[in-house]
């Protein structure tokens, strides 16, 4: 485990089941939105490389923009959790960019994570906490 309980600053980290629910909701919604945008792009341009770029950009923006603006994605809104830094403050833009980019490898590296702090959280120094 990277962190021992209690977690830094006694953060009330979202539990494993909540994190799984966040993942399922956000993954499905972001995949559907990205697929629809990529398909539309391909129909307009006939360029499959451009469609792939659109797919990746939509997936990135799905996570980055809501977490930057609201501190949470749709999944986190439903589960009443949010993303914070070690001081329970809004993460910096750079932290959120790292967090979003690292999501691409999170599933491959889950063995590094403990039950409540995912790989993309560890390396971006962000935490998903229960809302107060």
Word description of this protein:
The mean pLDDT is 86. By secondary structure, this protein is mainly α. The protein has one domain. The protein has helices at 16-45, 48-69, 74-79, 93-106, 119-124; strands at residues 81-84, 127-130. The protein is elongated and about 50 Å long. The chain has five helices and two strands. 59% of the residues lie in helices and 6% in strands.
Spatial shape: elongated
Per DSSP, the total helix count is: 5
- Rg from alpha-carbon coordinates: 16 Å
- Roughly what percent helix? 55-70%
For the termini, the CA-CA separation is 26 Å
User: Class by helix and strand content?
Assistant: mainly alpha
Strand order, largest beta sheet: 1-2
The string of secondary-structure elements, in order, is HHHEHHE
Largest sheet: 2 strands, antiparallel
Q: What is the tally of beta strands?
A: 2
Fraction in beta strands? 5-15%
- pLDDT averaged residue by residue: 86
Residue stretches low in confidence (pLDDT < 50, at least 5 long) are none
- How many domains, in number, for the residues? 1
Task: Give a concise summary.
The protein has 132 residues and is mainly α. The protein has 5 helices and 2 strands.
Short descriptors:
two-stranded antiparallel ribbon, 2 strands, 132 residues, 5 helices, mainly alpha, elongated
């Amino acid at each position: 485990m990277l962190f021992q309980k209690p977690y830094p600053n006694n953060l009330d980290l979202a539990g494993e089941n909540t994190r799984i629910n966040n993942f399922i909701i956000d993954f499905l919604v972001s995949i559907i939105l990205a697929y629809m945008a990529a398909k539309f792009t391909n129909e307009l341009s006939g360029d499959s490389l451009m469609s792939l770029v659109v797919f990746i950009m939509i997936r990135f923006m799905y996570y980055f923009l809501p977490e930057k603006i609201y501190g949470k994605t749709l999944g986190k809104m439903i589960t009443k959790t949010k993303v914070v830094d070690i001081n329970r403050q809004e993460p910096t833009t750079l932290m959120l960019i790292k967090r979003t980019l690292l999501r691409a490898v999170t599933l491959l590296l889950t063995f590094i994570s403990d039950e409540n702090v995912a790989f993309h959280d560890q390396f971006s120094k962000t935490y998903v906490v229960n809302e107060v």
